[in-house]
Amino acid sequence: QKFNMAPKSVLMVFTNNDKLGDTGEQTGWYLPEGAHPHAVFVKHGLDITFASPKGGAAPVDLGSIDASKDDEVSMAFNNDEAVKEKLKNTTALKDVDPAKFDSVFFVGGFGVMWDFPDDENINRISSAIYEKGGVVSAVCHGPVALVNVKLSDGTHLIAGKEVTAFTNAEEDAVKRREVVPYTCEDKMQERGATFKDGGVFQCNVCVAGRVITGQNPPSASKTAESVVEALNKQ
Predict the structure, then answer these.
(1) Which of 4, 11, 9 is nearest to 142 (CA)?
(2) Closest-CA residue to 109 (of 60, 153, 173)
(3) Cα Rg for the chain, rounded, in angstroms?
(4) 29 SS3 class
(5) Which secondary-structure segment (H or E) carries 205?
(6) Distance (Å, rounded) from C-alpha 115 to C-alpha 53?
(7) pLDDT digit string, tens, across residues 29-70
């Protein structure tokens, strides 16, 4: 029976931003937060599209390559020529028709703090996918994509939902709280979400119906597995 069904689809969204605020440091998307979910989606046969706010090149945080050198899944993703080509040529979000996707997954990394929250296409795509019964998901700093998403009734998508993201304690642990425009935790609470802190660099995933968020890099695989489970219920 299942073989007759078209595969479920996921729009994986990466940052275009490689600047860490005004520090002069390089950033981007965080390697394991792209690599591990991608591996899960591939394993489950999802149809995957890479996108970014502006389209074109999506820069990886170079520090995350070095930090992941003992992580086989991340290294395989980083060295995959087909993946590299896709990351150089991501689809611009303005060209994305949300009707064609069953889910959206926002990859984290510090870069997203500057180009995800106020992107009108992120808001358009996320609300449309959610309102047609799809899954909206993100990991680490990726959930900042959701802080300004409003549904057609004018309410915030995350209001009243249990969510997580990179925590204030984690920002402090990596000494970045003063660098980011604001923290995910503060902004999500401001939007009326119930923020769940699973402990510094502990695996923690929140499933609030079809809104699925993961706290940090160790949560990346489990977040993606939860997305697949939610898609399988459709």
Answers:
(1) 11
(2) 60
(3) 16
(4) strand
(5) strand 205-208
(6) 7
(7) 999 999 999 999 999 999 999 999 999 999 999 999 999 999
Tokens of 52: 């970014």
Tokens of residue 184, six digits = 């995910």
pTM of the full structure: 0.97
Residue 121's Cα: distance from chain center in Å? 15
CA distance 42 to 223: 14
For residue 94, the 8-state DSSP code is G
Nearest partner of 214 among 51, 105, 61, 75, judged by Cα: 105
Three-point CA angle 144, 9, 35, nearest 5°: 60
Q: Is 168 exposed, middle or buried (0-12, 13-18, 19+ CB in 10 A)?
A: middle
pLDDT grade, residue 3 (50/70/90)? low
C-alpha to C-alpha distance for 188 and 178, rounded to whole angstroms: 18
Phi, psi of 149 (to 5 degrees): -75, 125
Single out the residue of 132, 135, 204, 128 nearest to residue 165, CA to CA.
Answer: 204
DSSP assignment of 139-199 equals: ETTGGGGGTT-B-TTS-BTTTT-EE--S-HHHHHHTT-TTTSSS-HHHHHHHTT-EE----
**Mean of pLDDT values over 131-154:** 98
